[in-house]
Amino acid sequence: MTALERYQDPATIQRVLHTATTIAIVGLSSNELRASHFVGFYLKRHDYRVIPVNPRETDVLGTASHANLLDVDVPVDIVNVFRAPDALPAIAREAVAIGAGALWCQFGVINEEGARIAEDGGMTVIMDRCLKVEHARYMGRMHWFGFNTQRITSVRAGLQ
Amino acid sequence: MTAERDRLEQARAFGFETRQLHAGQRPDPNTGARAVPIFQTTSYVFEDPESAAAYFNLQEYGNTYSRIMNPTVAVFEERVANLEGGCGAVAFASGISAQAAALFTLLEPGDHVVSSSALYGGTVNQFKHWLRKMQVELTWVDPDDPDAWSNAVRPNTKALFGETIGNPAGNVLDIETVASIAHDHDLPLIVDNTFATPFLCRPIEWGADIVIHSATKFIGGHGTSIGGVVVESGTFNWSNGRFPVIADPSPAYHGLQFHETFGTYGYLMKLRAETLRDLGAALAPFNAFLFLQGLETLSLRMERHVDNALAVAAFLQSHELASNVTHPGLPQSRYRPLVEKYLPRGAGAVFSFDCAGGRNGGQELIRGVTLWSHLANVGDAKSLIIHPASTTHRQLSDAELEAAGVRPGTVRLSVGTESVEDLIWDLEAGLARVK
After folding, report:
1. Is the pLDDT of residue B399 over 90?
2. Which of A82, A146, B225, B314 is the most exposed place for a label (fewest CB within 10 A)?
């Protein structure tokens, strides 16, 4: 198992997706063409409570944006990071401070120190994975677009 | 019903034979149907206006119109992507349209493509004439010469193209070498893997970036349907500066930046949402269903195909009226080292040989066989025979024929899964008419 695979375990990913209700997205943009907006929009459609954390924004997806995680005044299940990798340690410290459950770092947001801070603080870490893709893989409709979900199962699932 | 959250799926590297049966399909959630349902529908009812908008904006994976996506076709796409080790796939109405779409997504007028010269005649036509009409330049190279590949690359080159096993000359592409030449120039390697199928070779494992299939052939396997598919690895960096057509805001999709927004899936999203949308060569759901039936037995058929093909090739090799038997799996083949590396389970079931007596000899052989079917296809479970110079490669000049490894007496075989002694018996009868 490589260092990254430790943060990409399918069962862990499914558990985090199934148990979360509130997701703070650090770096969420109000620009509809940015990847972060696609993810935020998608998660909101799938009934997650999405909390924008971005000092450059006032309001994203109909919710007031917070300057940092410490300003978020509701319990957060997942901190989803769309920032440069070197910003991760500071974000991880804030995530631990507010008692968030999981630190989810998007594609390319790879920083070992940040991951260690979050793990030492009792958080689950998922790294170099897209939250939208993983939701669509296990609970959504990614397979309708011919993408390789890697899933092999004969279990009859609920309605999509 | 057991909640999904109580049945978390564990990481497991499932075997090829398991995946050829299961990948891409879960039992239908509405009905429990075990077989893949044929969704014979043009369009899909939207839940509400917001959902419809989200689907068209690609903010949510949603079915809109069967020219762009269809749930039966999607199972086929995912299954091929899984077997090839790609991140996804897009199916098309034919192999030729799949190939056109894979290139069209990358190319702009003034661009350039480097291609192996040893290709299926239909591909030669498409590249030579259709690319010219699109104002795309083309350089043919000898696929066996690595220097020829690198020397042909220009600043406006956008892709390198070859076939895993060339049609019909049986040359084996040194995929790893050519992929590394492509990557040295920040270019993708596109490989037509039709003759090998993912059971015999998976080009992505050797560095290929895009894999194309005519599903009409071994994937379908029974000569019932025309179709094609494009698979992408998901690892090529389309934002490397050479591909503004994919990385920059797209005027054809309200400014969407496909690679930035969809990352790994950007090329395939563009291939589907723009190229398939605009070319319209959608695979029919029923044909996708037949291809899925074919895929369920792919490994079983290919094992038999390659055994029979090698036996027929060995028979011809020792026959006085046959020469130049191009099956790359023969011990004498110059491609033997490449076969051992890329095709350890067998070097396919399509090859050619030169029949004594030139053009007349080849035609007499075809008149003399009664079990082999004389037709223009390959990859059927039934054995097929054809004379390329007067059929599939008819539009090629003498020089192009030579480059494609076709001579006047060349006969191409696609060896099926019949009793092999019957296939040899029939060829003996046909060869008896020659001279």
Report:
1. no
2. B314
Boundaries of CATH 3.90.1150.10 in chain B? 299-431
- Rounded Cα distance between B293 and B21, Å, is 9
User: Measuring CA to CA, which residue among A144, A159, A99, A133 is closest to residue A17?
Assistant: A133
- The set of residues, in sequence order, having a beta carbon less than 8 Å from that of B145 and lying 6+ positions away, is none
CA distances from B146 to A61, B79, B116, B208, B328 (A): 53, 33, 11, 15, 19
pTM greater than 0.90: yes
Q: Which domains does chain A have, with CATH numbers?
A: 5-145 (3.40.50.720)
CATH no. for B299-431: 3.90.1150.10
Per-residue pLDDT tens over the stretch B229-263: 999 999 999 999 999 999 999 999 989 999 989 98
CA distance A38 to chain B (A): 6
Name the B residues in 199-258 with CB < 8 Å from any A CB.
Answer: 249, 255-257
Q: Which of B1, B48, B60 to mutate to test the interface with A (most CBs of A within 10 A)?
A: B60
pLDDT (mean) for B90-116: 98
User: Is A11's CB within 8 Å of B8's CB?
Assistant: yes
What is the fold of B16-293? Aspartate Aminotransferase; domain 2 (3.40.640)
The dihedrals phi and psi of A66, each to the nearest 5 degrees, come to: -100, 145
Residue B406, pLDDT score: 85
Q: pLDDT at position B3, please? A: 58
| pLDDT at residue number B1 | 41
Q: List alpha helices for chain A, DSSP H.
A: 10-19, 35-45, 88-97, 112-120, 131-138
**CA B340-B341-B343 angle, 5° bins:** 70
CATH 3.40.640.10 residue ranges for chain B = 16-293
